[in-house]
């Protein structure tokens, strides 16, 4: 048995930037959880996505089951691999369809093909809660060890709920730009059980905010561009910057690969709309299935 795969760079308009994800549509080849995990480990990208065609009762809407695996575990929510999956479906499989609906561990997610060529994802908006004094001290100690430069910590909070309970957000001042800053992720392991650490700061050069995301506990030392974290960053920066309701925010993720997206927080619906580009960079065949 063999499988076709596609590698897509997400949240970028050019190849070899953004966040690469592997997309696999097994079709009638049923894969076990163990097989999906082993394949994801073999590709060793931050996420490998698996799609399963479902019946859709809506006209001009295609429905799929969607699961995401890091090299070490199954993820509850993933933005860039959903964008990559949507790009594959819109450009290769579901030609003419403008809306996709995905059944996932985080509920139904919606992808829309926009007239300008971008794809819009509608995800649940996340909530943040403050941390205890003890945890704050622990975070400050860990952050002080990840770089030789002193980062001015302005805010620490953690995600709430099924999809975001492992996320931690740390805003730092702009005196030390995150872009190009060498980071030693080792000390971040001490922040377990929070496995996704988001460093963010106010933006420059036309962006509203910038971020970098680290997940050494989940097999991702640094994630190039992270859609799911923007479900927390969107509401956070909308309120912090006193933006109007539904006002788009321009975000850049300043990892070495870099990437960009637009975020719209719809507080009334409880969702975040993430808009970005994607580029297919590789197609191939997995000759051996574990």
Q: Topology, pairings included?
A:
Elements: E1 3-10, E2 19-24, H1 33-43, E3 47-54, E4 61-69, E5 74-75, H2 79-93, E6 99-104, E7 107-113, E8 119-124, E9 127-130, H3 133-145, E10 153-160, E11 167-172, E12 196-202, E13 209-215, E14 220-223, H4 230-240, E15 249-253, E16 259-266, E17 271-276, E18 278-286
Parallel strand pairs: 2-3, 4-6, 11-12, 13-15
Antiparallel strand pairs: 1-2, 1-18, 3-4, 4-5, 6-7, 7-8, 8-17, 9-10, 10-11, 12-13, 13-14, 15-16, 16-17
Shape: globular
Head-to-tail CA distance between termini = 10 Å
Total strands: the figure is 18
What top-tier CATH class of the largest domain fits best? Alpha Beta
Give the overall pLDDT as a whole number.
96
Order of helices and strands: EEHEEEHEEEEHEEEEEHEEEE
Please summarize the sheet with the most strands.
18 strands, mixed
- Give me the secondary-structure category: alpha+beta
Number of domains: 2
CATH architecture of the largest domain: Roll
What percent of residues adopt helix (DSSP H or I)? 10-25%
C-alpha Rg (nearest Å)? 18 Å
What proportion of the residues form beta strands (DSSP E)?
A: 35-45%
Low-confidence stretches: none
CATH topology-level fold name of the largest domain: Diaminopimelate Epimerase, Chain A, domain 1
| CATH homology group of the largest domain | Diaminopimelate Epimerase, Chain A, domain 1
What's the helix count?
Answer: 4
């Amino acid at each position: 048995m063999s499988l076709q795969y596609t590698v897509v760079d997400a949240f970028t308009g050019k190849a070899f930037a953004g966040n690469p994800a592997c997309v696999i549509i097994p079709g009638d080849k049923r894969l076990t959880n163990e097989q999906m995990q082993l394949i994801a480990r073999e590709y060793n990208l931050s996420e490998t996505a698996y799609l399963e065609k479902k019946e859709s009762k809506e006209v001009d809407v295609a429905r799929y089951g969607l699961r995401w695996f890091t090299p070490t575990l199954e993820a509850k929510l993933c933005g860039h691999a959903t964008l990559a999956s949507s790009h594959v479906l819109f450009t290769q499989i579901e030609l003419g369809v403008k809306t996709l609906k995905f059944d996932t561990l985080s509920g139904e997610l919606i992808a829309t093909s926009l007239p300008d060529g971008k794809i819009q994802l509608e995800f649940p908006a996340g909530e943040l809660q403050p941390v205890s004094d003890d945890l704050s001290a622990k975070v400050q100690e860990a952050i002080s060890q990840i770089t030789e430069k002193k980062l001015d910590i302005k805010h620490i909070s953690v995600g709430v709920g099924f999809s975001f309970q492992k996320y931690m957000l740390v805003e730092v001042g702009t005196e030390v730009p995150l872009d190009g800053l060498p980071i030693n992720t080792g000390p971040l392991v001490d922040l377990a059980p929070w496995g996704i650490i988001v460093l963010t700061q106010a933006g420059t050069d036309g962006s509203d905010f910038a971020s970098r995301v680290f997940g050494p506990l989940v097999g991702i030392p640094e994630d190039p561009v992270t859609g799911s974290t923007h479900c927390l960053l969107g509401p956070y920066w909308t309120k912090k910057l006193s933006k109007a309701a539904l006002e788009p925010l321009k975000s850049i993720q300043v990892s070495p690969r870099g990437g960009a997206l637009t975020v719209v927080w719809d507080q009334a619906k409880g969702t975040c709309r993430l808009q970005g580009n994607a580029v297919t960079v590789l197609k191939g065949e997995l000759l051996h299935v574990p």
